[in-house]
Amino acid sequence: MEKIKLNLFHLKAKEDLLSVHQFFKESIKKWFDNDEPKEDFFHIRSCPLCNSDRSELEYEIDNFSYHRCLECESIYTKPHLKDGVLDELYSDGTYQVYQDSLVKKGSKIRKGVLELRKSSQIENIINSDEVSLLDVGCGSGTFMQVCKEKGWLVEGVDPSPEACSEYDIEVYQGNFNEISFKKKYDVVTFWGVLEHLSEPILAIRKAKDILNPDGMIVFEVPSANCFMSEYLKKFNFSPTRYIESGRHNIFFLKKLIDQIAYELKMEVSLIESNGLDIQTILLEEFDQITTEKILNIQDTINDLLLGDHYRIFLTSQK
Ligand SMILES: [Zn+2]
Question: What is the mean pLDDT, run by run of 10 residues, along the chain of 318 residues?
């Protein structure tokens, strides 16, 4: 399916990116004392993806230390935020600022282009008209609404009581790993969710448990092997996207995703990278010709699977 050359500034205004970035920087200050992580909020843990204790420092941003796991090569924050600290961000309204400023404003292009493409990608692989879908971390619910308009049966999960308030769609409020589901689904999706969780592997295993035999798991996660990550290693700064200090705590590697798929007796049907690296780094709007060249460079980076996010479709082994 054809890719979309996405202009970051059509989705999110520069001023909004900067102000939300600043807002979160302020809201996480309480977790530190003289730039040192407070024990009340942080703990040292092994790699959230493979459990190895061996790691080395990759870079430090906004007082967070990002380590590369020497076993699975993924990147994670060390020390790591304790369970519950992030949940508070979602339930106390802090995360709502992100929704209001960055998600809702770009909702037209999101719904008409991006979410539509996601659902079409699923449709192309699953080959069925009656799709039942569970969207974990459903947020505003736009993706589910697009699926619902195709006649699919959709349900969501989100820790926020405000989630999906604009649409008439059933949402389980709470932590996905703690909810017991009474039925199975054809598709379980995690759009930008696993990197926020303290136990992402448990969540993927759980998704497999509630999947119909020919079902599909779809997730989009920040990559640990991308242009942006290499850039940050050389030229340290605090980007308005990708890192999202305090919220993105795990960055995935393709090798590990293949391993997870193998363990679940699934296979990677489709993988693509959807980066917005160059525009995130430059954070400037240019004339049309320059913008086109920037989008072309990004497109090339994405084709090399080196964009800042992976989008992955796991299906049962044939
Ligand atoms: Zn690891």
Answer: 86 89 89 94 92 96 96 94 80 68 74 91 88 95 95 94 90 94 96 92 96 96 96 95 90 92 94 96 96 97 97 91
Residue 286 contacts residue 258 (beta carbons within 8 Å): no
CA of 40 to the centre of ligand 1 (A): 25
Please name the amino acid found at residue 162.
E
Nearest to 249 by CA among 11, 99, 31, 92: 31
Torsion of CA 86, 72, 67, 207, to 10 degrees: -10
b/e string for 225-261 if b means 16 or more Cβ within 10 A?
Answer: bbbbbebbeeeeeebbbbbbbbbbbbbbbbebbeebb
64 Cα–ligand 1 center, Å: 18
Distance 263 CA to ligand 1 centre (A): 15
252 C-alpha to center of ligand 1: Å? 9
Predicted TM-score (pTM) of the model is 0.93
| Residue bearing tokens 């282009």 | 113
Q: 8-316 has which fold?
A: Rossmann fold (3.40.50)
Q: Calculate how far, in angstroms, residue 15's C-alpha sits from the geometric centre of ligand 1.
A: 36
State the distance from the centre of ligand 1 to the C-alpha of 274, rounded, in angstroms.
23
